[in-house]
């Protein structure tokens, strides 16, 4: 496996092992209680919660947050405030930070985001999800019907912890064929509380789906998924159907927690389930 750059890699962030009883309890809170609320109410509560991180006082969280979550004392020097700002004026500015210089992709296929690869399997090996009494295939994540994605495609799910970089980039050079917004819930994303089905939230949460066709006509499907306290998922203003993108062109950013799923014609060449991936690393 490729070595990771120390300024934003997190080798300790792999698999969080918790007792089964605690995982079931957390799943009950997320799916049955919180997930039982109307989606509109979930979004209102999440919006109210996230407003604190947009206030100037929240910038005082950044320094202790860095101290707690990053071993590298120079971590923030690799990034800049978003949207041309001169400083990190709020915690939300830190959360939506930008690279001063994007990592150089080492291959024509690159990871589009940073986080824990919590699921990786061929489409035909994925189990159906059971959501509110319905049986849903993996194509549901991408807003498609069963059979729309070739069975030999690979499915990956990268969980972005709150401390991870939260912008999503193009994994390949290609042409955008579809952009779709799917309203939905905002249940908890943390994969270790779902045990047998870490991608459960991807089947039911609010998300944007983007299809990109590569030079060989093969389509890469991305699903950008929100979770609790997400104020919004913002697509890049330059992204539109028919637009040609290069590897690591920015597609979207999250305001707080997120997950990125992908269905691609190739399996990851270096990474397996429960390993840490980084933006620009060889897919």
Q: Your description of this structure?
A:
By secondary structure, the protein is of the alpha+beta class. The protein contains 5 helices and 15 strands. It has helices spanning 20-34, 39-50, 62-69, 91-95, 200-204, and strands at residues 79-80, 98-99, 115-122, 129-131, 134-136, 154-160, 167-169, 174-182, 207-213, 219-226, 233-235, 244-245, 250-254, 258-264, 275-277. The strands form 4 sheets. Strands 12-8-9-10-14-6-3-15 form an 8-stranded antiparallel β-sheet, with no helix packed on it. The termini are close together.
Element string (H = helix, E = strand): HHHEHEEEEEEEHEEEEEEE
Give the number of helices: 5
Mean pLDDT: 85
Given the helix and strand composition, which structural class is it? alpha+beta
Say how many strands there are. 15
- Main β-sheet, spatial strand arrangement: 12-8-9-10-14-6-3-15
- Secondary structure: helix percent: 10-25%
Query: What is the total domain count?
Result: 1
Which percent range describes the beta-strand content? Answer: 25-35%
Shape, principal axes of CA atoms? globular
Characteristics:
single chain; 283 residues; alpha+beta; 8-stranded antiparallel sheet; 5 helices; 25% strand; globular; disordered N terminus
């Amino acid at each position: 496996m490729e070595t990771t750059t120390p300024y934003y890699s997190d080798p300790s962030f792999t698999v969080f092992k918790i007792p089964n009883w605690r995982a079931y309890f957390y799943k009950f809170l997320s799916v049955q209680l919180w997930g039982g609320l109307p989606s509109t109410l979930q979004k209102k509560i999440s919006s109210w919660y996230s407003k604190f991180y947009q206030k100037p006082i929240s910038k005082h969280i950044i320094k202790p947050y860095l101290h707690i979550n990053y071993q590298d004392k120079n971590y923030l020097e690799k990034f800049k405030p978003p949207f041309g700002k001169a400083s990190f004026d709020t915690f939300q500015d830190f959360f939506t930070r930008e690279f001063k210089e994007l990592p150089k992709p080492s291959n024509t296929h690159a990871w589009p985001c940073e986080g824990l690869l919590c699921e990786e399997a061929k489409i035909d090996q994925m189990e159906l999800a059971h959501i509110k009494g319905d049986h849903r295939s993996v194509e549901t994540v991408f807003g498609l019907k069963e059979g729309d994605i070739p069975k030999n495609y690979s499915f990956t799910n990268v969980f972005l912890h709150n401390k991870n970089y939260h912008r999503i980039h193009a994994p390949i050079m290609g042409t955008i064929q579809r952009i779709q917004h799917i309203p939905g819930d905002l249940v908890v994303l943390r994969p270790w509380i779902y045990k047998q089905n870490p991608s459960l939230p991807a089947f039911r949460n609010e998300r944007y789906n983007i299809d990109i066709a590569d030079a060989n006509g093969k389509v890469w499907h991305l699903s950008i998924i929100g979770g609790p306290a997400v104020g919004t998922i913002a697509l890049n203003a330059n992204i539109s159907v028919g637009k040609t993108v290069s590897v690591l062109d920015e597609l979207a950013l999250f305001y707080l927690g997120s997950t990125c799923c992908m269905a691609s014609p190739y399996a990851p060449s270096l990474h397996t389930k429960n390993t840490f991936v980084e933006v620009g690393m060889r897919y």
